[in-house]
Amino acid sequence: MLKKKIKIISLIILLLISLLTPIVNAENEVKVEATTTDQVNPISETQETVTIKEGDEYLFQDTVTVDTPVDGNLFIIANTVTINSQIGGDAFIFADTINIEENGYILSNLFACANAIHVKGVAYNIYSIGDTLTIDGFVYRDVRTICNTLNVNSMIGRNVFVNCSSINFKEKPSTEDTASITSYGSIQGDLNYFSDEEIAIPDGHVSGETHFTALKNNTVNISNYIYSLGAILVSAIIIWLIGLWLSPKLLHNTSYPITLRKALQIIGLGIIVPIVIALLSVIISLIPITSQFTMLLLCVLVILFFVSTSVAIINVNTMICNKLKITQNLYKLGFLIVTTIIFWLLTLIPYVGMVISLIAIIWGIGNVSYSILIKEKTDENNSDSNKKISNSEKKKEKVESKTEKENKSNKSKEKNKSDKTVKDKKTDKNNN
Asked: Do 325 and 270 belong to one domain?
């Protein structure tokens, strides 16, 4: 029991360290003095104070404008986002409209999900999903995007991977002088695009090779089905093995009959717990002191959703094995594989599959929450019932031993009486 507790505590400590290590308070500010020298009079110098925000920055508003340099990662959820300063790390932006202005400089990657993305400044790599992506600035390396329209009006330093309907390039200026590579749309590496139909790419705009892949509609891709089945099988087996290693009792929770009250509690926890965690993460993110714990709560929520389906499958499999009185783990593993395949087949049914998946998620989250929150009460009740059973058995044994002793004494008395009567008869014969 002690070894299992040590295993669980060590895993929790490693998870907390991995989640809390990269998080830094975003409110620490450092004032940097930048000196600019007048070109006309080198003796006169003017000092300008620039405020830099150290650490990661979390912004959740309707309209966000970033005018202060950030020496860390940037996390934004908003309607309209405008970046006018330097970002030292990655930028994670979820919005309707994103504008990276000319003074905007993202030293690392831009991860964007928006309806319209307009890049006038500089970015190292761009990973985006949206309707329109327009490049008027400069991208050092690659662009990987899924969009409807890609507009390339300036230079992309390396390769482009795009799934789109149309690609537009800004044409070279019609002058006798050699045009600058930033004055027209150009891709210095390869262009790899996926589309329903082949797109006409003008000559001289792609320095590398152009690769076109047609999107096939209304075709069944067997590999996707095999991948999804393999993923759910591996997930269920791994979680089952982890549960078997850490706490085998957790896999036998369904040995007790699931009453209507317990089922309602599990379903209620499966609905309430995600909502509570989401609300807590929003509230904590608004408090400066505790904002660094937001990512921890969100990670917990993601983990719950990730393991929920597998936990529900394991729960159903355990109930089946208990009904069939299967005790060997090897047979349980075989039934788990069969149960997982049946569940996967049910999820492929239109409309019904979505309902089954939703029920599995709710039941899985509720089952994990029930095991954590109500585990001690059930253990106490079980221990009390076991104590009562043991006491009653002891009393029963005492009664049985007492009756056995009484029976033995009665038998010995009867034997003595019979012996005495026999002796009396012999003496009577001798006297006669």
From this structure: yes
